[in-house]
Amino acid sequence: MFRTIYENDADITLTDEADTAIIQGNNDTVQGGLEDDWLTASLRAGQPAELSTVLSGGNGADALHAALTVDGISYSEPEDPGHVAATLSGGSGNDVVGIDAASLYADQELTASGGSGSDKIDIVSAFIYDVSESDHGEFDNHSAYIDVDGGTGSDTINVSVEQWTFGTVRIDGGSGDDEINSANGENTIYGGDGDDHIAALGQGSSAIDSWGRNTVYGGGGDDFLDLNAHGEFSTSNIAYGDGGEDTLNLYASGYEDISNVADGGAGDDKLSLSLFASGGLYYSASGSNEAHGGDGDDDVRLVIDLTSGEDYAPSYGYNTAYGDDGDDRLSATLTVDDMSGDQFRSELHGGDGDDRLSVRGGDGNSLFGNVGDDTLLGSSGADRLIGGQGDDYLRGRGGEDEFVFKAARSGERDQVADFHIGEDVIDLSDMDANAFRSGNQAFRFSGPDDWHGTGRVWLEDVGRTTTLVHIDTGRTEMTIALLDGREVHADDYGAGDFLL
Fold it and tell me: What Å distances lie between residue 147 and 24, 162, 179, 236, 296, CA to CA?
């Protein structure tokens, strides 16, 4: 049955047949029946706009569409912008739901839900501006947002805001293997249970104020999350893989404060966090990456590049990663033109398991192997390498490095490669030299021919390419293997190569 609805403020329930309805009345509520319905609302008004429509599909494979057009909208106009709202609910069945908004400003609400079934939801808006987030006081307490709920089933959800974006986009995929794409906006997305594919683009503009923000939760299942944020001011990505073997890719760029935060959750996850300066006059691009692998064997890669911009002086750049439980691979790269002090550095924590930690660039980097047989690879700058428990392999790779040992453990032997006499140091200052005396006693350095025993550190040549460092606490004697090559011998070392 076909019908056109012209009246305003109507509340209409269609027949149980397959209906086609065109709604041109304002503030109408139209409910479909049991069969496959086709409902479309077309509303148009000038500023200030007062437009509203509610469409519900009911049972069946329904097609719902709302088109909202507001004439004469400008972010600079201080009048009352009015209210525009569309609420579309697919109900049960495999539904198609769409909303087109020619212009959105201030009090704007677009809501779509798929219900049960594998639904397709598309929302296109030319403009969202949430004045509650701005400094335009004429419009205090106004807001704009898009809210989408996929419901149960494997849904496809697309949200696109084509111009400047200052409102909020919230999407919940619900259960099922969902595909979600949200372009522009301050995005908050929940994948829900299932193997989801989520792409979020948060992009600001210099027209008024500018930020790009994405927050995405993968939920249960093996999820693929791709987040891209860009803005002139605060720019951020936050991603949670939750359970499953997830892939999280985060890319952030901007002119000032930029950040990526990712947590893989349980499972063998792949995390890639990249942060770049966009450049621009009078801006100081700075930023940070922080990643948590969670339980499982994770691959975590962090990149900060603050050389992409122009006419600025970056103030900081930090990479931080935690592998947590499992055999993890953590790498961090930091590139900046003028790097001084420790405000440009990376800090990696392996956690439990046999981990591989690697840093490039930065100065004052710290690598913590924690528990397990770990491999720690420093940068060309000054690094601190702390192997922790297990048989660890430590390589400084240039710079004035500190190889830190906090406790004596018998049966363990760490290996230190490329130790440079007179530049690098072996730090034993946290280790008690005499287990039978109270307090933290300092060690004493002994030459090859001196007395060796409790509280002493001495060295011994082993083969042609290795020097052993002996450390005796009275209760435990541990050794460190220095892989120093053919040209270096035990008597080349002195007390100055140690922090005792």
Answer: 23, 17, 16, 20, 34
Is there a domain that residue 7 lies in? yes
11: buried, middle or exposed (CB in 10 Å: 19+, 13-18, 0-12)?
exposed
Q: For residue 424, give the CATH number of its domain.
A: 2.150.10.10
Q: How would you label 443-457 residue by residue, b for 16+ Cβ within 10 Å and e otherwise?
A: bbbbeeeeeeebbbb
Q: 442: which DSSP letter?
A: P
- Residue 204 in contact with residue 231, Cβ under 8 Å? yes
C-beta of residue 415 within 8 angstroms of C-beta of residue 387 = no
Closest by alpha carbon to 82, among 113, 43, 111, 54?
43
For residue 67, give the amino acid letter: A
Q: Are residues 183 and 290 in the same domain?
A: no
Secondary structure, 3-state, 69-86: EEECCCCCCCCCCEEEEE
Which residue, among 366, 362, 361, has the nearest Cα to 404 in the 3D structure? Answer: 366
- In terms of Cβ atoms closer than 10 Å to its own Cβ (0-12, 13-18, 19+), residue 231 is buried
Give the pLDDT confidence of 79-128 residue by residue, as tens digits: 566 678 899 999 999 999 999 887 655 567 889 999 999 999 999 886 66
- Asked if 344 and 452 sit in the same domain, the reply is no
Q: How far is CA 33 from the centre of its chain?
A: 44
Indicate whether 433 and 480 sit together in one domain. yes
In a domain, 196, yes or no: no
How far is the C-alpha of 150 from the C-alpha of 111, rounded, in Å? Answer: 11
Residue with tokens 């999350």: 225
Asked whether residue 224 falls in the same domain as residue 334, the answer is: yes
Q: Is residue 389 part of a domain?
A: no
Residue 469, pLDDT > 50, answer yes
Tokens of 311: 């006419």
Q: Quickly state the pLDDT bin for 315 (edges 50, 70, 90).
A: confident
- Nearest of 283, 356, 284, 292 to residue 321 by alpha carbon: 292
Contact 139, 108 (CB under 8 A): no
Instruction: Enter the tokens of residue 12.
Output: 């209409």
| pLDDT tens figures, 203-233 | 765 544 557 889 999 999 999 999 999 877 7
347 and 222 together in one domain: yes
Residue 206 located in a structural domain: no
Instruction: Tally the C-alpha atoms within 13 A of residue 447's C-alpha that lie toward its C-beta.
Output: 4
Domain span at residue 279? 211-382
Q: How far apart are CA 254 and CA 231, in angstroms?
A: 5
Kind of pairing between the strands at 456-462 and 466-472: antiparallel
Cα dihedral sign for 125, 127, 133, 139? negative
**DSSP for residue 113:** E
Residues 6+ apart with CB under 8 A from 234: 211, 213, 254, 256, 257
